[in-house]
Amino acid sequence: MRKLTAELASGDIQLPSFPDFTARVLKVLEDPRATPSRVAQVVGADAALAARVLRMANSAFLNPSANPITDLQRAVTCLGHQLVRCTAVSFALKQIELTSDKADLRPQLHELWRKGTLVASIAFVLARHTRAASPDQAMVMGLMHNVGRLYITVTAPRHDPAAGQWADVVHEWHPRVGRAILKHWEFPAAVAAAVGAQNNWKRESYGGDALTDILIAATALVPCVFYRELLDDVVTDVPPFKRLRLGAADCKLLLADCAAQIRALQATLSG
Q1: Distance of CA 115 to the CA centre of its chain
Q2: Which CATH number applies to 2-270?
Q3: Model pTM above 0.90
Q4: CA 244 to CA 226: how far, in whole Å?
C-alpha cells in the first residue's frame, strides 16, 4: 500500500493503454472530418466491437422505432462520434473484467463496471433534463468516473491488512488517477476535469463546469434510482444540485419518469 500511495502522491503512475483496435477507433474519432464511412471501416476491423456498435444503435433506448439497423455505417451515423467513442471505451473496459487473471478481483471489477454504467445512465438523463451539458458527453464522463478505482483495484496488493485505511486512500486518490488516465487517453479536457473533481461536493465556485455538477449529482442519486424513498432534502442539499436547480421533489419526479430509460440505457452499456 505504501508503494502505491507514494506513486500516486508523486504522480509516477504507470498508466494503462487501450487495446490496439480501440486506440485506432479513438484516433479516427478525434478527426472532426472523419466520415461515418471511415469510422465504420475502422470499427468493422474488430467483429466484436462492430457487433457492440450495432447493438447500441438498435437498443430500445436509442432506437425506439425498433426499425432494425443492420448497416454499420448507418449505426455510426445514428450514434454520432461521442456515442461511438463511448461504446468503444465501454467495450475495452469490459474486457478488463472478462480477461482478468485475478479471479478474486472479478466481483470487484464487475461492481465497478455496474456502477459505472449506472452513473453514466443517470448522468445522461440529468444532462438531457437540465440542458446544462451535452448528454452524450455526460454519459462518457459517467462511464469513466471510476476508472481510477479500476486502475487501483488491479494494481493494489491483493491482501491488504489495513483495509479501512486502504479504502480511504482509494477514495481520496481515485479521482486524481482517473483524471490522469483520461488525459493519457486523450479524452476531452472537460470530462477529465469533471472526473478529477468528483469528490468536491461542497465547492461553491461555478465557472460553467456543469459536467462536474452533473457527475456529483449522478453519483449521489445512485442509491435512489430504484429506491426513491431514500431521496430527501439532505441528498440534494449541496451546491451542485442547487446550481442544477434540482431539489429532492424534482429528482423524485425525474427518476420516476426516467427509471425505465435508465434501466434500458444501463443494460445497453453493460453489453
Answers
A1: 9
A2: 1.10.3210.10
A3: no
A4: 21
DSSP letter, residue 260? H
Quick one: cell of 61? 433506448
Question: 257 CB contacts (<8 Å, ≥6 apart)?
Answer: none
What distance in Å separates the CA atoms of residue 24 and residue 92, rounded to the nearest whole number?
12
Provide the grid cell at 23: 486506440
Biggest alpha carbon distance in the chain? 55
pLDDT tens sequence across 71-108: 999 999 988 888 888 788 778 877 765 565 556 667 77
Residue 85: name the closest of 148, 159, 172, 23 by CA. Answer: 23
Task: Pinpoint the alpha helices (H) of 11-69.
Answer: 20-29, 36-43, 47-57
CA distance 185 to 183: 5
